[in-house]
Amino acid sequence: MVGAGQLARMTHQAAIDLGVRLEVLADHEGDPAVQAGANRAIGSAHSIEDVRDLATRNDVLTFDHEGVPQEVVQTLEAEGFLVLPGSAALRIVQDKLLARQVLRNSGFAVPDFIGLGPDPERQVRAMAERWGWPLVLKARSGGYDGRGVAIVGEDDAASVLKGSATGTWMAEEYVDIDRELAVVGVRSAAGDWASYPVVETRQVDGICRELVMPAPIADALASEAAATAKAVADGINAIGIIAVEFFTTGNGMVINELALRPHNSGHATIEACVTSQFENHLRAILGLPLGATEMVAAAAAMVNVLGPADGSDPRTRLGNALTVRGARVHLYGKAAVPGRKLGHVTALGSDQDSALAVARRSAALLDGVVRKDDIGRGSACGQGEGVRPEAPVPGIGDLTD
Ligand SMILES: Nc1ncnc2c1ncn2[C@@H]1O[C@H](COP(=O)(O)OP(=O)(O)O)[C@@H](O)[C@H]1O
Ligand SMILES: [Mg+2]
């Protein structure tokens, strides 16, 4: 697996159970998957030599991120290495503009969009006549967690585009979103397909904060989302995990984004489903039978743990978070930087709200946002609304900010 972040780390966990030898190509010794004990090579995803070395020692090459240059992937394919997903599918998800074009040309609904050329400001002003303000500017590649996405008005469009290289940005209409949904599915080289229940994700500032599974939507909409994800996966010959993000609006559903790797929207599958997305990714790329994707509980919720604004490290508050009965805490071993994804908490429940309450409460304790009466109760209910304490709460050890 090229990359050694949290996705590789959780794939490594699944590989252990299957007795599969996973080797990761890591930028640094401290990367999450390396810390977790995966076999590793240190090198760059941009170096054909480094990636070829990795491929030479292994049966199949796969990815924990999209940042592997096309030349590298295509060269290795031409040299006969098995690369899954393949370069043709990867190319589409590496470029948000190309993804929009391919999807629209194949008849899928997407937000209206345009690629920006040498005079982006003029183009954006022209598109604003059609779409109105605000509109959305997106870096075609390299963005994640809302980085590279800007919702802009007339006054700030130019400043976002300033200094960008020609052709690296696109613009699209601002969608008045009812809900954001995601389908995580898995497709094998033989075309076998399975998908997990549709999730509803909730973003703040472009980054996923929490999700519930299944999404509280009508069955017909869930079926439509699942069928659309399968059609996209078949259409681009996705192999392994694919995540398809949707916006629902007053007039139906549009596809937002695609990813061809285990995805944040699928982390809850570790506890909530018979087979996790990480195990299914391995099964698919190794030509093994796909695992069942059904839920093992009525509902599940996941809350991401982001680096707190004060720079404090949620790991120092692990003991607090673990007082919440039923919360399943995952920390990725990453340095605490404000806003960075450092972990997530999953909970199962009899309905989405009760699962979400548990996950939120535990995640809030990791964030350092607590109410005194949350501490040490050993069970969870309520909404986790809280305040950062002025001083450490007595009796709970390491609540240092
Ligand atoms: N056209 C749009 N209209 C309204 N909101 C959008 C639009 N595109 C993106 N967003 C918001 O920004 C978030 C991040 O955008 P996305 O394209 O998924 O980039 P990323 O690669 O950062 O996930 C989305 O989940 C959504 O909340
Ligand atoms: Mg997205």
Topology at a glance:
Layout: H1 6-18, E1 23-26, H2 32-35, E2 39-42, H3 48-56, H4 70-78, H5 87-93, H6 96-105, E3 113-115, H7 120-131, E4 135-139, E5 149-152, H8 157-161, E6 169-173, E7 179-187, E8 193-195, E9 199-204, E10 207-213, H9 219-236, E11 240-249, E12 252-259, H10 269-272, H11 277-285, E13 299-306, H12 318-321, E14 328-331, E15 341-349, H13 352-367
Parallel strand pairs: 1-2
Antiparallel strand pairs: 3-6, 4-5, 4-6, 7-8, 7-9, 7-11, 9-10, 10-13, 11-12, 13-15, 14-15
The structure holds adenosine-5'-diphosphate (ADP) and magnesium ion.
Magnesium ion (MG) binds at residues 245, 257.
Describe the protein in words.
The protein is α+β, with helices and mostly antiparallel strands and 401 residues long. The protein has 13 helices and 15 strands. Helix 1 packs across helix 11 (277-285) and helix 3 (48-56) packs across helix 4. It is globular, with a radius of gyration of 21 Å. The relative contact order is 0.10. The model is unreliable at 376-401 (pLDDT under 50). The chain binds adenosine-5'-diphosphate and magnesium ion. Residues 245, 257 line the site of magnesium ion.
